[in-house]
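Practice set, problem 2.
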Amino acid sequence: MRLAHMIKHKLSILHVIVFTFFLPTLCFAQSVMVIADVEAAQRCYHDATKVTTIENFIVRDEMIFSCNVALDQYGLVDKDRAATFANRGILYAAQGSLAEALSDYDEALDLHPVLGEAYISRGIIFHFEKQFEKAIADYSRAIELESRDIHLAYFDRGMAYEELHRWEDALLDYQKALEFHPDWTPAVSRLHWVKDKLDSENLLNR
């Protein structure tokens, strides 16, 4: 029975790791709404939203081209320009162009430093590149800013804490994620795993 329980949790871990690390933008990145009535910018936003909400959504070059047009040919205000950089970053990340995605998130945050969604998306890139302290700093900033879908920031930070073996911090973050999004399966799975991890360590230390 114990073996079956362990196998079940290992499969849950594998599912979340694959989802978070190998397909980061498909899960927990956040598109940013554009206010301006500029067709190219709106297309860029809607395509980025599809990446974050539709599994296996394929990013085509013309989608990034729409973002380029919005950035190059229209005088967007800083907030909308920042949003468009953040949305293009999601599209780049979905294509696996992580350096380009990171550059776009940096541009977005230079223009609009309180854009919580961009901190989450940039944190995912740092996380993927195993720069866990930088990822934690970005997730924490998103939490401070009370970013939309804040449960994602808590969950992502919990995953980063796990990488650093900061189990108690991870546990608290998964609990916070579930306060904002009760019964959310990824957080429930990680919370159970970390509790088991802490229980086993406590047994070994007795």
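Problem 2, part (b): a different protein.
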Amino acid sequence: MGARSHLACIPGLLSAACLAQVPDGEPEWFFYSLRLEDRVLRDALPTLAGREAPRLPLQEFCQALGLGIRVDAPRGQATGFFLNEKRRFRLDLSRSLAVVEGRELPFPKEAVLARQEDLYVDLRLLQQWFPLAVEADLHAATLKVKPRELLPLQAQWERERRLALRAGEHDLAVAHDHRTVAVFEVGGDRRQVGVVREENGFAVA
């Protein structure tokens, strides 16, 4: 049964009806809000419960953060890179092994599960593989990403902020160019009497 066919069980608010939806031996499904800085990346990120930490969908998590990793769930594999193309990543579920920047990092079999179109990875492994931490608030059902290095998504946001700032400065400069100072000469005494805007070559108050 797929993630979205389960009842959206909210951590800290489990009920008998909610527990009844979970087949014997199948981990429970939970849905979290995934956040970075002050932005919501995913309103309802599906996760699988673990003994000590939730398991997050690897591909959806990486897509949300702008990491270039692709998952082939039927084959139990994931390949790609993060932050830049030189920082390679590979995962082989059949071997319970991840290779991160050339380092082989084995993991317990139960830490990564294949479900539908994604691989659900123990949160602690994600923090080990990638330069980030994730704070899980069970009662608020939120996952807050705390990068240790600038993520591609953050770099994109910074570029957008700079472009918006430049656009605002440009608009201000244009508005200033369309304003002129009205100067009159009275009895040989030049006086500034006000600031007006210029339209079609004429001064307009």
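Answer key, part (b): Helices lie at 16-20, 58-65, 123-129, 152-177. The longest strand covers residues 189-199.
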